[in-house]
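anyone else get weird line breaks when pasting these?? whatever heres mine. first is seq + tokens for prot A
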Amino acid sequence: MIRDEIGRGRQVNRRVLRIALLAIVLGIAAAGVAVVLTNLIAFVTNLAFFGRLSLTEASPADANIGLWFVPVAVLGGLVVGLMARYGSAAIRGHGIPEAMERVLEHESKIPMRMTILKPISSAIAIGTGGPFGAEGPIIATGGAIGSMIGQFLHTTAKERKTLLAAGAAAGMAATFGSPVAAVLLAVELLLFELSARTLVPVILASATGTIAGALMRGDAAAFPMEAIASPGAAAFAFYLLLGLIMGLASVVVTWAVYAIEELFEHLPIHWMWWPALGGLAVGLIGIVAPRVLGVGYDNIRAIVAGTIPIGALAVLVSMKFLVWVIALGSGTSGGTLAPLFTIGGGLGALIGVGFAAAFPDAGIDPRLAGLVGMAAMFTGASRAVLASVVFAFETTRQPLGLVPLLGGCGVAYLVSCALMDHSIMTQKLAARGVRVPTEYGFDPLSRLDVAAVMSAIVDPSIIGAARVFADQSLRAAVDLLVHDDLDNIGVVTRDAPEVVVGVLTRADALRGFKARMDENIVRRPLRVRRGQGVRIRLSE
């Protein structure tokens, strides 16, 4: 029998089930990577700033080393530059844009050395004071593991993309306990589609990573926040205005990052030395404001808890912005999520304090303003609007914050799309000529059969493809399409005047022949049935 292959068939088959099972294993592996990388960052931090061998979580802000911040940060940048130069240049940057490029341009294939060098270089960069979060490297490494599994098992490009996205989502979910946000981030930045065969494995990997991460690090909220009150109309109007401000701020931040990158590109030295120069700036700023160095998750917790004084908060926001854009622009290895959350959250809290003082009866909560600010900043910079909203909810577990988050992030998303052609994740890819999908659209051709618009009666003298008759045997079809090397496609016709009943590709003919090596089978007629479509595939 010959069966139509376009638009028909189950969304979930045995291969999808296989990928789903692999995704569960991948979720456990990504959670392990998250724990290993977190411990590695802690180890480098303890060694670099405290001179001790320990895996205990530590912050450079607690180190009293004065001018020694400079050589520590410069040395870390130098090591990262050498690793990028002689190991893999792909370790430079945020992590997520590089994964996007692999999906769009390289069939989701990530080299083995990237899987090893990315977490090590990130741990060195962050552990020596780099103002980045661990989530970017964890997401990139989880995706790399998924890609490596896909390459080892000889999967298709789409299946590798699914595994890459599943590993990335599992890494993020294990780090923050945010499974739904991790799935949404994978959909918005890596998958660029919604279908059962891609979504189910990502969901299973994210859920598994969350459970595995909770077993290893505990199940407390990543950014604990005391209960907030439901905002009234006046407060909601403020959060919409805050979304507008944060959207503008995200545009400035994005422009600043790439402006600094361009400045580094004009330096008359090899890019291998750029991270060391960035480390010089990190060290100098660290002397003045050591709190801005390192992963900075404690800063985000303090912002949503409302425990940072206004003056310290202003210093944190300004210095974090400055040190982060310089370090990231230098091409070192680090992430964007935690810095953007810190800058956006701190700025939102500052604005919230000001408006709460000016309008005391409006019910504005500076803590909620910080939460909306950090999510809106990430929305404007990355365009991952749904992931930003859900992430802020899952990491604080404050359901009454969802409406202000939706309003603020929605406005920030609108401003970002109006003022920028590309996000902080896609600007560099666009400059390289990579076309990045920006929205989901309906393809009308996917709903239209060729048989509905083609002419079934053909003139044999003007047929441009090889002619395969429906009563021919499979062996004869293979001889015509493969052995005689006439055409890649054969038009399957019946009787005279010749009526086209289907198209048989060389690949399908050869695949069918290999599956039916029995002589009696390959000598049977094709048995084409009229009306079964145009693209046809051989089956029993």
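and prot B, same format (seq, then tokens)
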Amino acid sequence: MKQSTHDTLLREASVGAVLAHRAEIEPDETVFTFLSDDGQDAEEVTYLQLHMRAQAIASALLESRKPGGHTLLLFPPGLDYVASVFGCFQAGVVGVSAPPPQPKRLHRTLPRLTAIAADAEVESVLTSAFIRDAAQQFFQNDALSRAEWIATDALPEVAKECVVEPDLNALAFLQYTSGSTREPRGVMLSHRNLLTNSEIITRAFGHRPATEDKGVIWLPPYHDMGLIGGVLQPVHVGAPCVLMSPLAVIKRPARWLEAISRFRATTSGGPNFAYDLCVNRIDDETCETLDLSSWRVAFNGAEPIRAATIEAFSRKFERCGFKKRSFFPCYGLAEATLIVTGPDRDDEPSLLDVDARAVERGSIQPPVDGEALSRLVGCGTPYDEHELVIVDPASGSRCKEGEVGEIWVAGPSVALGYWRQSAETDDCFGGELRDDPDGVRYLRTGDLGAVLDDELYVVGRLKELLILNGRNIHPHDIEFSAEAAHPCLRPHCSAAFERGTAGSGEAAILLEIRQEENIDMEAVIGAVRQRVAEELDLSLAWIGLCGAGEIPKTTSGKIQRNLCRTMVEAAEISLLAGPPVAS
């Protein structure tokens, strides 16, 4: 098929039709390879094989329901999950993605799953025979007990092609938010949202079809970065991708870079903490075995991006062939499908030294001698028919260049809204600029940032902002400082929050420690107090220490600070040191 016909299909056909097209023009090309946890064994699937598996799932879905119904995808990361995503698209059924409950944390993960299933009004569940049989004991008199459970690994092949062509503006997928600041909500994504954002990623990353590009993705497929970037993008652009288990990479980060080296990947990435894990936990001997010279796009997003991380990673892995200009700091969110802004991929990351106190006061200013210094990372500019504005959230007025405000976004990647939450949809997706003659409705992201010289700098979350004695302090600044105070503190495992009334409250922090013998808890607390005081000129009113895994996180690894505060106040977290927090 000619390239012009292919380009038209990417613009006008559904996501399921894109896979069917790939299966027709390059049936025997491998599209996904899934590595075992140890990285030794690999399961591969071609476009045709994936299409046939998706067709079997689509056929099973349409046997008992019409297009438009809601189906929960309940799988661990792997090719069964990938096939089920495309099976839903090809059946015109709305997929609902959620991670399976964790056996060791059922008290947290099981209620979240049942709440999502009830909210999404699921009619069926796609899963494996093993999970179907094991899960029956957990679900009684709820949405999941009433749903039809379909074991995709027990389905027969089908000979008849069945690809439903839905309205591109209709609901295609419910992507539940990770719940870092509130309860998870179902973001309604249309086929057009998914296709538009996939095409943006293709151009932003400079992806090319066939064998010229290859990805390595270990991110959870239940969330935007893993789903859009790891599952949909390879099929959209026609470039193969190696998939890995997130847990395998968290346990041993070297597996990630070893896969990039082994498969000569050109695109890979993750949140900032993943790069820190590589810096801190990959030894020199392992570095000698890595060749990262093929890595052209190292995207970094989904949480605050630290300049120190970019510098440290670039220094450590330069000897492995990694180039600093490969770093691709970007900004996005589930409510905008995935990516919103990014830099020119050929430029080195924009690292900007600023006056930290000026940022607290609401503007980006050059550093002043003797004042606290902060280094911000630029996240580029918005893509293709998308508009980004910085707005004073109180007045709705557009901020001047360099002023910090809420990030508002408009464009074809912005989702349809929140499922069954009309008031929240109106509030978050109905932002109106004061004195705007065009009447554009914007997505209010809840993120704080500023634009300087056409570059977006993200500085924090509006709902997590600590207002202390007239200062606006972002919790991650406190956490980064505190975690560096003592070697027994676990990086990316702390939660800073405010106790008391906003504006007149006090700063508190809970930190996880490594379980080691003979730790002087009071010395650790003293080191944290001193470091935060010296670096941020901030007095911590309460410091608590707890064991590994106590601080609540979302399934994508984000700290749930508000939930952490609630749990500490309710004495639901076992403290190793520190007094209870008074509510």
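btw re prot B: The chain has 19 helices and 30 strands. The CA atoms of residues 30 and 46 lie 4 Å apart.
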